[in-house]
Amino acid sequence: MTRPHPEQQYLELLETLLTRGDLRQDRTGVGTRAVFGHTLRFDLAEGFPVFTTKRIFWKTAFKEMLWMLSGGRNIRELLEQNVRIWTDWPLKHYRETTGESISQEDFERRIVDDDEFAGTWGDLGPVYGWQWRRWKATDGREVDQIAELIDGLKQNPTSRRLLFEGWNVGDLDAMALPPCHKTYQFFVSSETGKLSAALMQRSADAYLGLGWNIANLALLTHLLAQQCGYEPGEIVWFGCDVHLYLNHQEQARTQIAREPRPLPRLLIRRKPDSLFDYTIDDLDLPGYDPHPHIAADVAV
């Protein structure tokens, strides 16, 4: 019996959202169809889980993950790499605060060219990577959760505390966007020597965001496995509020009608001295041959 393509479970999720999703109003005003509680599981031995029924711009996704691992919090660091996925939130804040109807292009140019402007308007607050690398403890210490995770994976691989967290309750109001992918946990098999990862995501944009979340979870697992001396195992994704925006329904129907193609393999060209020394030039997905991109607007 032929095993279903790993991507099929994602297409079935889109179908579920279209046909049985709870119709809801949301923070953005766009509206969604949502389900509560859903799991996707991918065996990394079967290929790198970058979806093929529409093009995923994996280099942009990977750049975002590497930026998060660096502890970054300013969009300038992303814009300098031609990554614009975080601009919408500070741009909206700037327009609402100043009343200036600046274009996105002009706003981004000022962020890159003007240090003072970037410091004021490009800062996203203590988002994602800042919490991962610089979580403020009550005694004033900054906790590098990723460094502690790596140490645990090497020194105590059967621990049930191999995790890191982004949901810092005391900092939520200072963030441009509270973390959607919030809790990561890891598991090393004593029998196989494989490293597996799980992600608990409180809020998942099933059409635009989820493909990136899965790809970045897989990337992080591969990089940690290489750094800590393991083979990549599985990734398990847990979505809580999993939603399809109402203005993405036709795009989802188009994607569901497509047949998944073979998954590529992740090529890591070198092993740098630490997890924090990888660059986008170290990574490739040879053989990635997806269906064409399907455009959709992000809800801000």
Please outline what is shown here:
The chain has about 300 residues and is α+β, with helices and mostly antiparallel strands. Helix content is about 35%, strand content about 20%.
- Tell me the distance between the termini: 44 Å
Put simply, the count of helices is 10
Biggest sheet statistics: 6 strands, mixed
**Which structural class should the secondary elements be placed in?**
alpha+beta
CATH architecture descriptor text of the domain at 8-59 and 141-284: 2-Layer Sandwich
Order of helices and strands: HEEHHHHHHEEHEEEHEHEE
Count of DSSP strands: 10
Describe the global form.
Answer: globular
Based on CA atoms alone, the radius of gyration comes out at: 19 Å
User: What is the helical fraction, as a range of percent?
Assistant: 25-40%
Q: Please report the first level of CATH classification, the CATH class of the domain at 8-59 and 141-284.
A: Alpha Beta
CATH topology of the domain at 8-59 and 141-284: Thymidylate Synthase, Chain A
Strands in their spatial order, largest beta sheet: 1-2-8-7-6-5
Q: Into which percentage range does the β-strand content fall?
A: 15-25%
CATH level-four homologous superfamily name of the domain at 8-59 and 141-284? Thymidylate synthase/dCMP hydroxymethylase domain
Which oligomeric form is depicted?
Answer: single chain
Q: What's the overall average pLDDT, rounded?
A: 97
Low-confidence stretches: none
